[in-house]
Structures are given as C-alpha cells and as structure tokens.
C-alpha cells in the first residue's frame, strides 16, 4: 500500500502521531484499509467528506498498527480491544491526526484563529483569564487545544472549563492540572502551518 501522503509528527518510543489530509483520497480497496464492520459503517455514511474522513482515520490506523478495529466507549472515546495500546484521534478542516501509545494519550488539532479568543470565557476560568490576559490568538488556541487534549484522557463527568486548570510555570510555559491535583501535566505543542497540535501522555 502507498501511504506517501502520511506525515509523521511524533516518533518517540512512548508515543507515535501521524497526520494526513482528507483531500488525499487514497485510491485503495476498502478491504485494505477497513475491517468488515468498518466497511459496513462506511457505506452508511451519507456524504463523501464523512466517508473520506472515516476512511483516512482508519487508513492512518492501518498504516500504523494494522487492521485493529476502532471502537468507541459510551462517552465517545475511541479505543482498541488491545488493552496495551491507547489511541486518540483529532480532525480539523481537511486534516486528520491519529496517535497511539502504551500510556493514556490525548491529542487535539486546532487552527490558529481569533475565533478562540472570542469564546475564551466559555472555556477559561476567571483565574486563567487573568493569568493569560495578554495572550495572542496563537496562545489562546494552545489553551483550547490543551484542554481538549487533557479532556480526551479523562472519564466523564468532568467540567472542561473548571476541572482542567491551566497556568504558567516559572519559564512562562503552559502547564495543566486536573481538579486540584498538585501534579502537573506536561503539554506538548507542535506548530503545523497555521495549526496547533497539542498532545499529552498520562
């Protein structure tokens, strides 16, 4: 199979993340990319965009791990039946991202935009709004992506705004905490053109 359009974003022993563009419609037989159940679901999707997104996410999975079926928990988190592999998925506009790790993993891809700044009060606490009051559009996008990535490692119920807390460390870098846990979560950011990718491992 030819996966020339797959971009390797992270290639570490503890974490692998790959990305591709839904405009790259792989001209490959579905049975090379999807399981039997996934082909059935694919055929029920009612738009070419949704079909291509569904196929591409699983194409990234197949290229990385083989035909291991992606399932979803009641609250929407994707998982594989192999308990030693954790996965996370994100998509924005034409891009899809797939990550996997032996640890809990959360990834989120966001486009840098002033739109995030306009809704900052919906996802940042009063304390966070004060601490990041001079943030640029890029930083606000990082904050949104960070909360999304952390949220994807959690089991609901959890408040996106109030239970995931962001602050600056002594070097001015963004760090995260869950509830009032004193242990900080390392936030990893990548700039990809005009997008921000955040990933966390727990």
Top keywords for this entry?
202 residues; alpha+beta; Ribosomal Protein L22, Chain A; 2 domains; four-stranded antiparallel sheet; 11 strands; globular
Distance between the termini: 33 Å
Largest sheet, strands/sense/barrel? 4 strands, antiparallel
Instruction: Give the % helix.
Output: 25-40%
What is the count of structural domains? 2
How many helical stretches? 7
Low-confidence stretches: none
Radius of gyration, CA atoms, in whole angstroms: 18 Å
Describe the strand arrangement of the main beta sheet, using strand numbers.
1-2-6-5
Second-tier CATH architecture of the largest domain: Alpha-Beta Complex
How much is the average pLDDT? 92
CATH superfamily of the largest domain: 4'-phosphopantetheinyl transferase domain
Q: In percent terms, what proportion of residues is strand?
A: 25-35%
Give the C-level CATH assignment of the largest domain: Alpha Beta
Shape, please? Answer: globular
What is CATH's topology name of the largest domain?
Ribosomal Protein L22, Chain A
Helices and strands, in order, run as: EEHHHEEEEEHHHHEEEE
DSSP strand tally: 11
* SSE class: alpha+beta
Question: Would you mind describing this structure in some detail?
Answer:
- There is one protein chain.
- The protein has 202 residues and is of the alpha+beta class.
- It folds into 2 domains: 7-103, Ribosomal Protein L22, Chain A (Alpha-Beta Complex); 108-201, Alpha-Beta Complex (Ribosomal Protein L22, Chain A).
- It has 7 helices and 11 strands.
- The chain has helices spanning 30-33, 36-44, 48-65, 114-118, 120-123, 126-131, 137-151; strands at residues 7-12, 15-21, 71-72, 78-79, 86-92, 95-101, 105-111, 164-168, 174-178, 188-192, 195-201.
- The strands form 4 sheets. It has a 4-stranded antiparallel beta sheet, with helices on one face. Strands 7-11-10 form a 3-stranded antiparallel beta sheet. Strands 3-4 form a two-stranded antiparallel sheet.
- The chain is globular and about 50 Å long.
- The two termini are 33 Å apart.
- The mean pLDDT is 92.
